[in-house]
LysR family transcriptional regulator (Vogesella fluminis), 291 residues
Amino acid sequence: MSRPALDVESVQAFVTIADFQSFTKAAEALGTTQGAISVRLKRLEERLGYKLIERTPRLVRLSAPGASFLNPAREFIAAHDRAMAALSCECRRFRLGIAEHVAGPEVPTLLARLNERDPALTIEVRLENSRNLLDAFDSGDLDAVIVRQEDDRRDGEDLGPEHFGWFAAPQFHQQPGKPLRVAALAPCCGVRDIAIRALASDGIEWNEVFVGGGHAAVMAAVSAGLAVAALSCRLAPADTIEVGQRMGLPELPSSRIMLHSTLTDRRSRDALRTLAAAYREHRSPRYAGAD
């Protein structure tokens, strides 16, 4: 008895829908339309004889057969991509900058998946503040950057909003009548500038008690109860709480996350598009509704 032949596009559509729990986001990641994604999935389901994705007005999820098929489907795609890469001796790379307050815990997993799909593509990642990364991008030292939007720039691809708040450890105690103890990033950091302007506009006295140690060091200082800090609401340490309202601190304005790129070759652009779709996914509530 002959087995059904699988086509790469259909299997890739299924895997991407499973990853994003969304037909719209899967289409965006693959650079196609929602209708095309639906057609590819239907073709795959018909060939296999199983319904792989359950779709309701509020939910997109794997069926039982879909859950069983997902890992083999990933292996099928990875084997295909390795085979295609083996036909090309050209090793390509691009230099990617990601702002420290943008890089979340999902980044290593995403980069590993991109490498698995395209072993001939090397992505060199640089983590720094947005201003320095944009300067490096403009000077040609980086091929693409994912950064906070700067007031003097309106170019780039909008990946969505980034919200900020005042975070501190639950045990943090601010002495009455004393300046607010603030842990801050380097002086050229845009998030630091936002926080300082907000404090100044409300006439709140403050002292920087932990300065310029990098994003991870600042978060460690906040977790230790040494100070408060203005941090991304998405990336604040799990052992801290938002204390802005309780302490009467000014509301911090939201920003936008932007992708700037000079890359033109298809495979590098495909990798960037996958990263961009993942960033949009991690900035919106999952399962907010099927599409």
Residues 91 and 120 are 5 Å apart (CA to CA). The chain is about 40% helix and 20% strand.
